[in-house]
Every structure is written in structure tokens, then in C-alpha cells.
Amino acid sequence: MISRYALLSLIILSMFVIGLNAITHAKPRVSMTQRRGGPEYMVSNLLGLHDLDDKRPFDDSQSGGPSITKKKRTPSAVDVVIVGAGYSGLYSARQLTRAGYSVAVVEARDRLGGRSLREEITPPGINAPLWVDEGGMWVGPTQTMFLDLLDEYKLPRYLSYHGMGKVAMKWKDQVSMQEGPCWDCLIIPREGESESPEPMKRAIASATGELKEGLEELVRVMTLFRELVDTVSISSPWLTPGAEELDDMTFESWVHNATKNPLARLMMVLAGSEQGAIAEPWWCSTLHVARQLAAAPQTDTPERWLIKGAAGQVPALLAADVEKEGGWVLLDSPVHLITQHPGGVEVHTESDVISASAVIVAMPPHLTGRIRYDPPVPPARDQLTQRVFMGSIIKCIAVYEEPWWRVDPATNMSFAFDPASHGAMRVAFDITPPEDFGGGGSGVLATFVTETSPELFYLTEEERRDLVLQAFAKFYGSRALRPTAFVQKNWAEDPYTGGAYSSVMPLGTWTSFGEAWDKPVGRIFWAGTEVSTRWPGFYEGALHSGAKAVADVMKEVGRPTGDYKGRAADHYAKRGGS
């Protein structure tokens, strides 16, 4: 017979053993396991048992990124919380920490980068890893903030293969072969240009029959739309002359009213959806397409360069700088509630509450509507986030032993103008890096599966792969059916992105609720590429919006609570942004 005291002692001992076992097997609160896409992060363990001065670095040799040391446990209070660890959020955090502010970045995913994600591929028989971007990948000459960042991190870039070979343009059974950058054929002319760009002139000269007629009509329609684009107010689209009429008309309707030529219609729709709508033309307003083209002009060749090691390496470098300056980068921390009071905000994740003077929400606008706010955001902001949506993109990349197409038949890019025949591929890009930049001489082709082919979204990855390769083969020959590697990223499957490339405004949204697009709500500030007035939808836009949010926060919050370092974080103000 066990006495009640002995029994009580046994129970207490058992609870102690169970508790000790739970502690010793506790999972880290926030970790980023080693992926091919980035470095490993470890930010304390569940009860903060790690030595806070432990500086042993993690091995990050595979990713080519920095070594990251263990960090302190989640802070209870900082100057600024940033929701989202993509380009915009991490850039904002770096600029604030450099200016002496204490910052915590909270990210729902188990990785950094947002819509920036790279994949490492090692081609068979080659000991030279190839990094490819499953998200955004290009940079252009007028994207100065991004170029400055690449230079700061000493990341080389190389020319895209646009315009270095022949281009096959197909329409039904007709093929036009030309020298030079065919993508420029779809560029809406600059203001004041009365003549077609040289690539379009060459395309027209080499075409015959229906193809020639369609291209000539396309020039007329593009010039007409350019005149409309020149009237758009980028910062306040609802103030554009005729805004309500443009916002009540789909881009498809505008094109069909402008021309009856089937090829001109199709190519104009392609130009608008790839350059301006970021989605299918029957989903978005004409005002949205025009505003996008005004803010992100394709005439500035934003696809000029690609980056050695891929653009997806930059978030790890930004995060390393944030941590070096004393900031926190917390993964696996989805935010579900932001409360606001006269003195600041409280950001609630699943396991923590962080108090701050302000919060920057740097994520796709539609996802900001899934966070609960107390008090609620104004009705216009709520209505806006209910309407804006993401495009649907699956990025597909095929790797080959060599880029044979550069020699025979020397086609560097192909446009598929017949959706019935080439639904799996509207355009293919040669993104092969120089041999000494990785991949050991492998050839790389990329394409984007869009809403034009909705049936492809319901296929298995293997079925989709086969269809894309068959589409490649129609332009590049049977060798295109035998890649050494194939990568596909369906961005609509990512719950913390919800699609790609960017957000889309459906009919009536800009004119009804546009004023709430980037307007702060008390001490809640919005960032992310969509919010930018320069290059929205691009990395440049992400950096620009992040810098503007930093400037607004500094103005609202004032000096940081800690020791002020006096360093300028206001890149945005230096560049005279609006």
C-alpha cells in the first residue's frame, strides 16, 4: 500500500520527468531548414535555452549565402515590426536597423523571399551548380535601386539572350524569321514616337499575307493605346481623365473596340497581359493596364539582365544585414491580428505578441485583408482587399545539356500566337547563363503557363511537363523533349502568395477604392511591390515601396528608442521619390 504522500511525490516526480523531456525535445521556435533556396536560420529555442552569445555559424556553403548565427528569442517590444520577409519587407528592415531602430521581421513561411525563390540544379555529369529563379529574375537599366543593391552585394549580372539570335514568329501556318529582339515588337511605343520600333519594322518586312496585315494593324492599335497611357495619373489613377469609363471597361473590350484584326487583337492582348495587366485581359480594367504600363514602361527594357546565382539569393543577404544590425528575422510566424492603440501597435502571431511603435505590412494586398485588425481598418481598405486578386502563373524551366538552339536553328525566343496549338506556351525565353556563371554550359529555357490555358492548372506535374515540352518542341525541335532537369512552380498553390506575377484590379476598383491603396491606417503602413508608383510588379517596385514606408514610419515614430546611429536609411528621399 502506497501512502498518499508517497503517491503525491511519485506524481510530482513524473510531472518533472515529462516536463524535462518536453523541454529537451522542444522544437526551435523559428527555423529555416536547409533548402536549396536559401540559408539556415535559427532564432532561439522554445524556452530560450540556447546560449544567447553562441556565435557558431551554420554551414551555408550550398546556397552561396552568408553564414547566419543563432539569435535571441522573440522580442516582446521593438520600434517597428515588419510583416513579410520578401524583398520589400527585408529592405525596409535593413534600412531601419541601419538607422538605429530596433526591428522584428515576422514571416509566415518557413523561408525568406516571398515571390523570390531560387532552385539549385546540378546537371548530370557536371560539377557546376546551376541556380534558377522560380520567381522574378530580371533587372533593367532604369531600375536603379535594384541595380545599386546588386552592386552593393557584388552580384554580377549578364545580358539576357534577347536579340542575340533569330526569332520565330508563328501565326497559323505562317512563320516569320527575323534578327533581333522580337519581344520589342510588343512594346507600346514611347510618347511622341510616330514610327514603329526597328524590331517591329523588321518583323513586318519579313512577313507576308495575314501575318503582315496583322503586324501593321498592331502598330496602329499600340500607338492608339500609348496615347491613352500618357494621360494616366500613376499615383492617383482615379484622377485620370475619363477614369470611370476606363475602369468600367475590360482591357479585352478596349482591344476589340480598337481593331477587328484577329492577329492584332491577340498580340495586343499578349502585350497588355504580359506588360500591363499581369493577368488575362478579360479580368482587369483598362485603367489598370494603362496605369501599369505608365509606371513600368516596357520601353525601358526591364528584362535586360539576369543575375549570376539568381535573384533569389538577395533576401538571405538582406536578412543577414538585418541580424548583423541587431534585428530579428522570425520565420514560421503567420500574423493573425494587429491591434492599435494611441501609443503604437501589437502584432499577434500564433505564439507571440510583439509591441511596437509602428508596423509595416509588406505583402500582397489581398493577403493583408486576411489579417484581423482591432480597431478595424476603414471600410474602403476592407472593400479594396476583398476585390484585388493575384494573377495565376506557373513558371516552368527546362534545362538541357547545351543551348543547341543558339546555333541551329538559332532561335532565341519564340512567340506562340495560336492558343489552340500552343496553349502551354505563349512565349519562351532563353535564360542560359554564361558557362563560367554556373551550369557548365547547360542550356535553359523558361516559360509561363497562364490563365489562357486553365486546363493546365488541373493536370499533374508530369502531365503539365509533357505538354510544355511538346510546345517547346514545336519551335526548337525534338531535342526539346529530353531535358536533363525540369522545374515548375505553381504560385497559386502557395498560400502565402496566392498567385503571380502581381495583383490585379478588376472593374471599378481603382475609381471606387483606389485612394485606400497605400494610405496608412494610423500606425499601420503598407509596402510591397504593388504599392509602388515605380515599377510595380518588379523587384524595383518592392524596394521603392519599402523605402517609402521607411520614410513614412520615421516621420511618424520619430527617433528610435535605442541609441541613434545617425545613418541615413532614407534611400527613397535621396532619389526624390513621390
TrEMBL record:
<feature type="signal peptide">
    <location>
        <begin position="1"/>
        <end position="22"/>
    </location>
</feature>
<feature type="binding site">
    <location>
        <position position="448"/>
    </location>
    <ligand>
        <name>substrate</name>
    </ligand>
</feature>
<dbReference type="InterPro" id="IPR050703">
    <property type="entry name" value="Flavin_MAO"/>
</dbReference>
<keyword id="KW-0732">Signal</keyword>
<protein>
    <recommendedName>
        <fullName>monoamine oxidase</fullName>
        <ecNumber>1.4.3.4</ecNumber>
    </recommendedName>
</protein>
<dbReference type="Pfam" id="PF01593">
    <property type="entry name" value="Amino_oxidase"/>
</dbReference>
<feature type="binding site">
    <location>
        <begin position="107"/>
        <end position="108"/>
    </location>
    <ligand>
        <name>FAD</name>
    </ligand>
</feature>
<dbReference type="InterPro" id="IPR036188">
    <property type="entry name" value="FAD/NAD-bd_sf"/>
</dbReference>
<feature type="binding site">
    <location>
        <position position="335"/>
    </location>
    <ligand>
        <name>FAD</name>
    </ligand>
</feature>
<dbReference type="GO" id="GO:0097621">
    <property type="term" value="F:monoamine oxidase activity"/>
</dbReference>
<comment type="similarity">
    <text>Belongs to the flavin monoamine oxidase family.</text>
</comment>
<dbReference type="InterPro" id="IPR001613">
    <property type="entry name" value="Flavin_amine_oxidase"/>
</dbReference>
<keyword id="KW-0560">Oxidoreductase</keyword>
<dbReference type="InterPro" id="IPR002937">
    <property type="entry name" value="Amino_oxidase"/>
</dbReference>
<feature type="domain" description="Amine oxidase">
    <location>
        <begin position="88"/>
        <end position="554"/>
    </location>
</feature>
<feature type="binding site">
    <location>
        <position position="530"/>
    </location>
    <ligand>
        <name>FAD</name>
    </ligand>
</feature>
<feature type="binding site">
    <location>
        <position position="88"/>
    </location>
    <ligand>
        <name>FAD</name>
    </ligand>
</feature>
